[in-house]
Specification:
Blueprint lengths: L6 E6 L4 E6 L18 E7 L6 E7 L10 E5 L2 E5 L10 E5 L17 E5 L6 E5 L25
Parallel strand pairs: 1-7
Antiparallel strand pairs: 1-2, 3-4, 3-7, 4-6, 5-6, 8-9
Length: about 160
């Protein structure tokens, strides 16, 4: 905050912070112009519980991924970059974090509750990795268009 004309200045219930949140487009996509130095990803993660309108936020895994002055506030496994609430100015809009993040396993972070956000040494990058079961099998729900098969490879 202060927010741009195409963003709402909103507080996020349960996270105790403020965001400047642009609306998600009809396909659930978000603007990709983010503050310099930010590595958090814009995602359609927020919802106005009264209207059902959906908004974008910066999905994060750590404070260092957020813009200067913001922290990565977590609700369960899902992190959202938030700014401290200003004591003298309360946001008029109150948003909630949608509980549904990724619809399948193996998508990019933020990860589902039954996955870990893992870095693979020597390869660089991150992956959402579900645990293998006792027989070495992995969940088989994969993102649309994926041709790779899940295998129990990480330790």
């Amino acid at each position: 905050p202060p927010c741009r004309a195409d963003e709402v200045d909103a507080s996020i219930q349960s996270l105790g912070g403020q965001v400047c949140a642009p609306a998600c487009d009809a396909s659930g996509s978000c603007p990709t112009d983010i503050p310099a130095g930010t590595t958090a990803s814009p995602k359609c993660l927020l919802e106005d519980a009264s209207s059902g309108k959906k908004y974008c936020a910066l999905a994060c895994t750590s404070d260092s991924a957020c813009p200067s002055g913001a922290t990565c506030a977590k609700q369960g496994f899902l992190g959202v970059c938030v700014y401290p609430e200003k004591k003298d100015k309360k946001s008029e809009t109150s948003l909630v974090v949608k509980e549904t993040a990724n619809s399948t396993h193996y998508e990019e972070p933020p990860c589902r509750a039954d996955e870990v956000d893992a870095s693979i040494q020597s390869l660089g990058g991150q992956v959402c990795a579900p645990a293998c079961d006792a027989s070495g099998s992995c969940p088989t729900d994969i993102p649309a268009g994926t041709t790779a098969s899940p295998k129990c490879l990480l330790e």
